[in-house]
Amino acid sequence: MLRTARSPATVEETSGVFRTAFAVRRETTGGFVNVSQLEWIITLGVTIAILLFDVIVIGRRPHEPSKRETGTYLTIYLTLAVAFGIWVWFFHGSQFGLEFFTGWLTEYSLSVDNLFIFLIIMASFNVPRKYQQQALLVGIILALIFRGIFIALGAVAINQFSWIFYAFGAFLVYTAITLVRDTDHDDDAENFVVRFARKHLSLTDEWHGLKMWIKENGKRLMTPMFLVIVALGTTDLLFALDSIPAIYGLTREPYLVFTANVFALMGLRQLYFLLGDLLKRLVYLSQGLAVILAFIGVKLILHALHENELPFINGGEHVPVPEIPTLASLGVIIVTLLITTAASLYKTRVHDVKNGETGEAGEDTAPDAEESLDSR
Length: 376
Prior knowledge:
The longest helix has 35 residues, at 326-360. Helices cover 68% and strands 6% of the residues. α4 packs antiparallel against α8 (224-248) and α5 (129-160) packs antiparallel against α9 (254-265). It contains 13 helices and five strands. The chain has one domain. The protein starts with a strand and ends with a helix. Residues 1-32 and 362-375 have low confidence and may be disordered. β2 and β3 (31-36) form a beta hairpin.
């Protein structure tokens, strides 16, 4: 199971029947964190079972889910995440529990921003509401696959290269600056890969249910659903590049990184339909995430300096800088998200009031969806 090895006796106790399949050195404590093969098998098995349940039971027929349906399943998924975190807290130690909750909250907030891009993609391609649920499910599965790959690569990089935290930290700070400068996501649906597909593949503008291609007059044509999946997949890939370095700045444990990402993606499809247009009101979400990513980036750089082995920095010796504890990180993330949400809702509320006053003067009072998107 997941335990910190403090003595040979402890190692012997945990290795007995459940031999350790994964062992990651925990530099901050000088010990090891071991995840048994059984624990990984159970985790992966439950993850696959939930995905199959989502595909076979929930998404068995194209439809727009009701508020009751989405609310019920979202509550179940959130309860599972909290229950898992509590289990980690009591059975593996409060530090690991704290790291899971901090990582899960960070990944969940990044996933909500990902969800906003999904909303733009659906609107750009005019995806019928009854097909959006299946398209989102494919997007979430792709996100899980890409994040799994980057989690494994990140774990290998951390074990092999001591300087990788400098790279992770610098990348997150750069990403934060990019988020602040570019808050207009309207062109995210038509990315390079989608434009390449439009240019080099034979396409049809007609929807054929969930089919990604059809044959017409002996010629294979790609449907709009194919372009939607391509857009969702490339978006997932780009978001995985941001999210994995971010969570490795909060925990070094691949098992916690993986489970935090799994629980962050669970229920994301239901959240899309439950929130609906409310997502457009989170106009400061990008700025809030920029603050969080910049904070984690600085945290990573401080950790890299604290564990420095690069010869051209302080002669290869550790730099005596303070490190940011996980509890402080959790506090910063929660406060930032609360301020971001409150400020966003206040701004859109004031905007609605002004529109109402304008409407009373005889002008058009209809909310402008494009203006809401542009305000990001």
